């Protein structure tokens, strides 16, 4: 099966043509993405959003987060560098997004590594019902276990060490489905293959390159791209949310694939820079040839 055929017919929920339409809409709408994120990811996240066609706003002060949610299209919350004031801001922003019916995306960085991280992510999910949760396999497994414990239902083991994943994405698919069902959201697990699930349906996205594992905060930047895509339609429409997440994953992965083909790329540092350039060169034809959905 050719890549073009695979991308067009590999999954009934999404196609390369739909992905191209969403990317064009993103570039046209230039959504304002409010990012409450960690110090490590701010630079790469902001530059990635700009390169793909969105507008970033790194707004996390407790005194202004609620006001800014009213201005932004989606909200992104990333718990990478936690502190008590930031946790307060996260709760205020998520509550405002829920009140206004705006999509918000949670990146539970390091969930399972410490009780503070796990509790913060769990409280945000149960209190404010994110549109999307995106994490690596270990984070998703740990969060699913914590949520199930809070809801007093059975969960599989989800041990997590540090902020890097110690499990493969397919190992986390069952916990991801359970998490999606219990929390009425879409869950994205990223790894060698990426999975998007609402608990029933699954879209597999197979774009990307191993160099991404060597670029600090690449996953954080990806979550911001997910937020930018999700806000392009109705956040209560699960089909739209799943399709948007799959398209964001594919576009992000294709940018990495294009970057490493450049002769000037010698390692993760130069790959990171060339990824930013690659976003503008992603066309309908590129997506048709390279997008891998199943």
TrEMBL record:
Enzyme Commission no: 2.7.1.50
UniProt cross-references to Pfam families, sorted A to Z: HK
Entry's Gene Ontology molecular function annotations: ATP binding; hydroxyethylthiazole kinase activity; magnesium ion binding
Keyword Kinase set for record: yes
GO biological process, one term: thiamine biosynthetic process
Keyword Magnesium belongs to the record: yes
Needed cofactors: Mg(2+)
Reactions it catalyzes: 5-(2-hydroxyethyl)-4-methylthiazole + ATP = 4-methyl-5-(2-phosphooxyethyl)-thiazole + ADP + H(+)
Enzyme class: transferase
UniProt keyword annotations, A-Z: ATP-binding, Kinase, Magnesium, Metal-binding, Nucleotide-binding, Thiamine biosynthesis, Transferase
Pathway(s) it belongs to: Cofactor biosynthesis; thiamine diphosphate biosynthesis; 4-methyl-5-(2-phosphoethyl)-thiazole from 5-(2-hydroxyethyl)-4-methylthiazole: step 1/1
CDD domains assigned: THZ_kinase
Protein name per UniProt: hydroxyethylthiazole kinase
Organism, scientific name: Paramuricea clavata
